[in-house]
């Protein structure tokens, strides 16, 4: 084991914590969330190949971030879900769906802001072997991403909708397919930006090591990278990203419009179950 994977790790932590909230059932949510620091450690180690002296720093930072998230963020996420619940029995407009997306983005930014000095402390200890390891991992990850097809994209979306509403019948699936038939989703364009973020990150880490930056300066560089990762420097790409978000809101509204009363009641029950699980998790001792 060698060093901690950098702010990709920051985003990875955030995403993994968020994904733990949409697992199949309440028991899975609790198990996944409570074991998240260990799961994240092994995921990050796959990128960075931690050294023995870096492992304690990584685990310490993951534990700190997890405790912060349980204490500060779970109640806020629960409040967010409580605001969504009254929307489910009726129709949902694209604007209402995008308001929920905006709430999620606020929570993502809060998690980014919570990442502590250990990120900079670990980042300055990367050596060239670790960075080459990371490059190889990026290449393998990108090759896997290239396997994404329109059909796989559709199936992933269908799976997410059925997690919320239960089984979608043939006419409802047709609604989803029709929406995807006209989608601006472009995996090649996403891959190009993905590679930009990866190369930008590797350059930041190499420069931090070459310049012998102190941890606070390295952390500042990594936070600047995180800003560029979340908000692409290319205005045309940012506009396309925003249009893709708006499209996703329209797709959600269209599929929700096709659902039955029973499916919407199912969604409400699921949401309430998530809320109970999050309440219990946030009440657990640190």
Task: Please characterize this protein's 3D structure.
It is built from 13 helices and no strands. It is mainly alpha-helical. The chain has one domain. Helix 4 packs antiparallel against helix 5. The radius of gyration is 20 Å and the shape is globular. The chain starts with 7 loop residues before the first helix and ends with a helix. The N terminus is likely disordered.
Walk me through the topology.
Blueprint: H1 8-19, H2 26-34, H3 36-48, H4 55-84, H5 94-114, H6 118-123, H7 128-146, H8 150-165, H9 170-181, H10 187-210, H11 215-230, H12 235-258, H13 261-283
Briefly say what this structure is.
The protein is an all-alpha fold and 286 residues long. The protein has helices at 8-19, 26-34, 36-48, 55-84, 94-114, 118-123, 128-146, 150-165, 170-181, 187-210, 215-230, 235-258, 261-283.
């Amino acid at each position: 084991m060698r060093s901690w994977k950098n702010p990709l790790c920051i985003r990875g932590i955030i995403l993994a914590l968020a994904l733990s909230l949409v697992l199949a059932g309440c028991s899975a949510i609790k198990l996944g969330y409570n074991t998240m620091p260990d799961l994240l450690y092994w995921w990050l180690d796959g990128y960075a190949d931690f050294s023995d002296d870096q492992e304690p720093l990584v685990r310490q930072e993951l534990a700190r971030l997890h405790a912060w998230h349980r204490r500060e963020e779970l109640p806020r996420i629960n409040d967010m879900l409580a605001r969504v619940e009254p929307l489910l029995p009726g129709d949902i407009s694209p604007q209402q769906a995008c308001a929920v997306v905006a709430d999620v983005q606020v929570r993502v930014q809060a998690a980014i802001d919570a990442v502590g000095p250990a990120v900079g402390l670990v980042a300055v200890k990367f050596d060239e072997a670790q960075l080459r390891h990371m490059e190889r991992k990026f290449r393998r990850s990108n090759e896997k991403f290239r396997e994404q097809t329109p059909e796989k994209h559709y199936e992933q979306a269908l799976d997410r909708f059925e997690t919320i509403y239960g089984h979608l019948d043939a006419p409802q699936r047709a609604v989803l397919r029709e929406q995807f038939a006209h989608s601006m989703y472009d995996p090649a364009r996403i891959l190009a930006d993905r590679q930009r973020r990866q190369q930008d990150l590797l350059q930041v880490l190499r420069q931090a090591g070459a310049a012998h930056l102190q941890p606070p300066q390295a952390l500042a560089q990594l936070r600047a990278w995180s800003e560029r990762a979340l908000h692409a420097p290319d205005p045309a790409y940012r506009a396309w990203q925003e249009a893709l978000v708006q499209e996703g809101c329209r797709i959600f509204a269209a599929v929700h419009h096709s659902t039955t009363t029973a499916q919407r009641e199912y969604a409400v029950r699921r949401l309430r179950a998530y809320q109970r699980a999050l309440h219990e998790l946030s009440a657990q001792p640190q």
